[in-house]
């Protein structure tokens, strides 16, 4: 059985051409209506490509495959078509970058880089990670991967999700617990979905609850943190992020040059691991469609669930 697969750019075409089976590749960059009425598997480009998802209305499909774990940006345009996200692709790379940003801020790597650039031998003490209280807000796939990487650094790990519960590792706190937790934390890491309930959850009130010198890290969506509030609190907090609102930051924005701020330009999943893992997921989805099996990672189906 030949499966039709639409590809948004040459990188995705190469991933599908590598598939050992019968596929018909359709080039569709989503910048105009679909060239055919039906496609078995529609592959969406990376979020940072800023695709025009309104063109999804022009096609019927057995499955739309997002290239990100977050899928909220696709839902308004999906209609009744099944949607899958990219679970298994980005968790490791994103948690890896999260740890890099946390370590860089907690050991003051920017100061090391600046000292080296000036040709100075600069020995100093930095807070570090050992014995610090760390709160991960958003205990999903990436949140758990971040937690797994933090534990060997001998931190005191706290976890928070959309509702309070207990599991084998203890309490997963809910939103109602944050006002009590935040003043105790040395590090707060955000990895919640970008949706209406989380929009600007990190505002002036949230940041005011954090103690002086604490680190706030946004690895979720830019919309989760109020950028003006981050600027207002940057003098007394440490700030790190991979996402921000707006993206990119305008030229001359104070977060570019603030000494307490370190950021990466929305590249959490962008490591050498991404394409092999994304290619493997695409191939498994083609296998499933060919065999009439349920695809992986379906987060929205025709019944609207």
From TrEMBL:
Keyword annotations: NAD, Oxidoreductase
An example Gene Ontology molecular-function term: hydroxypyruvate reductase [NAD(P)H] activity
Spans through the membrane: none
EC number: 1.1.1.95
Every D-isomer specific 2-hydroxyacid dehydrogenase NAD-binding domain range: 99-268
Stored InterPro entries: D-isomer_2-hydroxyacid_DH, D-isomer_DH_NAD-bd, NAD(P)-bd_dom_sf
Coiled-coil positions: none
KW Oxidoreductase (keyword) present: yes
Cleaved signal peptide residues: none
This protein's GO CC annotations: cytosol
Protein's UniProt name: D-3-phosphoglycerate dehydrogenase
Species per Swiss-Prot/TrEMBL record: Trueperella bialowiezensis
